[in-house]
Amino acid sequence: MRLCPAVALSAALAGLLHPAPLAAQDILLTGPGIGGLSAIEMREDGASALVLSDRGQLHEVTFEREGGALGKARVTASYLLSGEGLDPEGLALFPGGDLAVSFEGNAPLRLYRGGAGAGQVPQRIPLPIHPALPPNAMYEALAVDARGRLLMLPEDPGQSGPGYPLWRLEAGEWRQIAQLYAPRGYRPVGADFGPDGQLYLLLRALGLGFRNMILRFDPDHPEIPARRLLHLTGYPRSNFEGLSVWQDDSGQLRLTLVSDDNFSASLKSRFLEITLDLQGTSR
């Protein structure tokens, strides 16, 4: 297998993008049975999203916005993806509406043609051949590029460590296109492609609460260092696991995150939305 140059996901290699975030809003999502939210895909208009629960439910969520800012959120529909007792973690929305879902453990990916309607039987996509990964640290970071190619990387590098293998599905075969290195203590838990064609990666660290980092890089040019966009430390009780990247009507980049409350009273199901102005940086 041909290995591309390693991409170091370290702020030491390419500091923060500037300027600082223009704005950030956060809201809670509550309701019977709502919890365990691990992935999100925003619709292009920012008025709604698909949100994945680790109990196998896919929720349609609509947002009330005031001047573009997040207001209330409510679930308008829910679908049960699988009755097999699997733990869904990653979500990727294809340009044509197909959905891909990744799971904890060794379960193959599921591809839902045309979306996840009730009773639909998904196509199974085998996982890459890879040294053993810890069963609770499999492929949480899942994304699809504009060409319809799935990319994913594990939460733990397993026996291939310390680097994290980045896989891309090409013509039905998984190919490792890079070996990624995260800052100490951080692990990849979410990913999405932005309107600029770049891959945005959500990292999480555990300590006295949760910390997150968001990085951006080009999988087609792994020799170019990744850039750290944000370092989030102000939400120690928010377990952010899902990331969606989109562009609003004014051309600003928005990063929408969702947190997994693990169905615990001490945590919350929270949406955090950050607006960035990259000031001339390619979008």
Could you write a compact summary of the structure shown?
The protein is mainly β. It has strands at 7-8, 23-28, 37-42, 48-53, 57-66, 69-80, 88-93, 99-103, 109-112, 123-125, 141-144, 150-153, 164-170, 173-181, 186-193, 199-207, 209-217, 227-232, 240-247, 253-259, 270-276.
Walk me through the structure:
The structure is a single chain. The protein has 283 residues and is mainly beta. Helices cover 0% and strands 49% of the residues. It contains no helices and 21 strands. The radius of gyration is 17 Å and the shape is globular. The model is unreliable at 1-20 (pLDDT under 50).
Structural class: mainly beta
The number of helical segments is: 0
CATH architecture type: 5 Propeller
* CATH topology annotation: Tachylectin-2, Chain A
- Share of helix, binned: under 10%
Distance between the termini: 32 Å
Number of strands: 21
Low-confidence segments, given as residue ranges, are: 1-20
Helix-strand sequence: EEEEEEEEEEEEEEEEEEEEE
Side by side, the strands of the main sheet go 1-14-13-12-11
User: What is the quaternary state of this protein?
Assistant: single chain
Q: Calculate the mean pLDDT score and round it.
A: 85
The tally of structural domains comes to 1
Radius of gyration: 17 Å
For the biggest sheet, the summary is: 5 strands, mixed
CATH class categorisation: Mainly Beta
- Shape label: globular
Organism: Pseudooceanicola antarcticus
Domain Phytase-like: 33-263
Protein name: Phytase-like domain-containing protein
Keywords: Signal
